[in-house]
Inverse folding.
């Protein structure tokens, strides 16, 4: 079952799934300058997509959704049919990000309340992690990733460098570890 829809719908932000682990504090401050919870028509519709689980997940707009959540207001959403999201690569990457969120029990923007970080931390904790995941997911196949995962079965494989000489794992305590291949 897919949650596809046409046009713009208005929803409570916590009804939407998320696809990122952190919010950038600077970005939130910039959005707060124009954000008006009493006039949400100023907010462009947030793109959402159903990645096969029947739940609409934000593909962008997490910061705007978070501010709407804080102000207890609904947000406009639009179904994201962009090739970047619907293509094989996009599906793989977004589904991977959703797995990360679920591993950390992050289900809605409300769960990001204590995960607002500065620019530098956002870069290292989120943007760089996504690049490492991109390297791993686009340069290896399922069997190769399973083989790499077997090297450290108790840790979560999440990325690799561009040369595929180092893989990145996350321990159950959240600490990341580099492993040479």
């Amino acid at each position: 079952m897919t949650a596809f829809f046409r046009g713009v719908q208005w929803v409570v932000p916590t009804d939407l799934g998320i696809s990122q682990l952190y919010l950038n504090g600077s970005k939130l401050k910039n959005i707060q300058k124009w954000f008006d919870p009493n006039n949400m028509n100023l907010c462009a519709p947030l793109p959402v997509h159903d990645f096969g689980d029947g739940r609409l997940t934000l593909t962008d707009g997490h910061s705007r959704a978070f501010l709407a959540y804080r102000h207890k207001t609904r947000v406009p959403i639009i179904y994201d049919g962009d090739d970047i999201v619907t293509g094989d690569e996009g599906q793989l990457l977004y589904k991977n990000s959703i797995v990360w969120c679920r591993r950390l029990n992050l289900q809605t923007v409300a769960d990001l309340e204590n995960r607002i970080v500065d620019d530098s931390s956002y870069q290292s904790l989120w943007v760089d992690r996504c690049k490492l995941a991109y390297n791993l997911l686009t340069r290896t196949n399922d069997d190769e990733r399973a083989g790499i995962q077997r090297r450290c079965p108790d840790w979560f494989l999440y990325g690799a460098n561009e040369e595929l000489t180092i893989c990145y794992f996350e321990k159950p305590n959240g600490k990341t570890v580099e492993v040479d291949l």
About this structure: The chain has a mean pLDDT of 95. The chain has six helices and nine strands. The longest helix spans residues 119-139.
